[in-house]
């Protein structure tokens, strides 16, 4: 792989990730060195803004703009760093998504370098990696890399002879999908129940322990060393016809080559599915897919030419989300697939608000009845009402709206399959899921 075209993944080694010495030899920590020695925090912020980097965790919010909401760092008073925090959201629990795991296990020093740059920019001297509890191998490798970074004075006091200091901690989560929501993550990090907070105030102003806090996704952060080394124009030109930069796309389901690929942002769905994932397995046809993990709307074979960037996927009627395709073939039941997803979301609801706490189990109950051939026409109306009941603006956070996205779009695109379950009194796919 070429470092200039595959910046995030060209150093990934899942069998034996690079130690500090080898990471140095591949240009590691040059981005952090450049940030600390050649630029002020405000100058690094300008570079990130110019790069047009957007968050890779799902929302796609401009990273530089998000950082700019943090109250100004007083460069003449290093003590002001004590009142700010940086948190890496590595709580990757979105079904169908495993891109961050690749980076965490395959090149942990890249993330550490990235967090040094980000923390320096926002003026924080404490940072946390909030890691999914089941990522045991990633935890071991991050701990090893952290020890190396401290020993080499990339962490701690007076980093590389500068006036800047940073302590970076690994926090392994106790679990729950809701911890991926940034304010629930902050509550969990404080030792509280992982319920999302009401906003405003936003974490950039009042986050961890009531202090200004930036929460960024693993993939988002890992772009920073390369932007600092190669410049914002290089990053923009990686995908000249789309959002800036590269993106790690994934695909899973009954396809020939499930996996992950770093491609220019805006690669089409068809390119990811057919060229890189090898297309459908023999004897199967594409029926539909979720383009960005389990909490996105279904798209159809007619959408294969759609670029996988934020605006294009939105115009097609879904969300880019995490960029992980979940593929549905023509031999598996869409009703059973949606039921499987809703069971997950119902289990993972924090229970804080009524629409999510009661709505997701209700949807599971109805879908179970339909899948077992015991549904009625009225159940379709009930599901449509539930989709409205749990939609954006009616819940405490985005979990319930995300849960109903595959349901709502399945009712739109696969209505015939729902009706077959009801009219025939059984699942026409014989419970293939």
UniProtKB/TrEMBL annotation:
Gene3D superfamilies: 3.10.20.600, 6.10.250.1450, NADH-ubiquinone oxidoreductase 51kDa subunit, NADH-ubiquinone oxidoreductase 51kDa subunit, iron-sulphur binding domain. PROSITE patterns: COMPLEX1_51K_2. InterPro entries: NADH-UbQ_OxRdtase_51kDa_CS, NADH-UbQ_OxRdtase_suF, Nuo51_FMN-bd, Nuo51_FMN-bd_sf, Nuop51_4Fe4S-bd, Nuop51_4Fe4S-bd_sf. Its cofactor is FMN; [4Fe-4S] cluster. Residues 335-380 form the NADH-ubiquinone oxidoreductase 51kDa subunit iron-sulphur binding domain. Pfam families: Complex1_51K, NADH_4Fe-4S. Signal peptide: none annotated. Its EC number is 7.1.1.-. Keywords: 4Fe-4S, Flavoprotein, FMN, Iron, Iron-sulfur, Metal-binding, NAD, Oxidoreductase, Quinone, Translocase. It is an enzyme of class 7 (translocase). GO terms for molecular function: NADH dehydrogenase (quinone) (non-electrogenic) activity. It catalyses: a quinone + NADH + 5 H(+)(in) = a quinol + NAD(+) + 4 H(+)(out). It comes from the Bacteria. NCBIfam families: nuoF_fam, PRK13596.1. Belongs to the complex I 51 kDa subunit family. NDH-1 shuttles electrons from NADH, via FMN and iron-sulfur (Fe-S) centers, to quinones in the respiratory chain. This is NADH-quinone oxidoreductase subunit F. It comes from Thalassotalea castellviae.
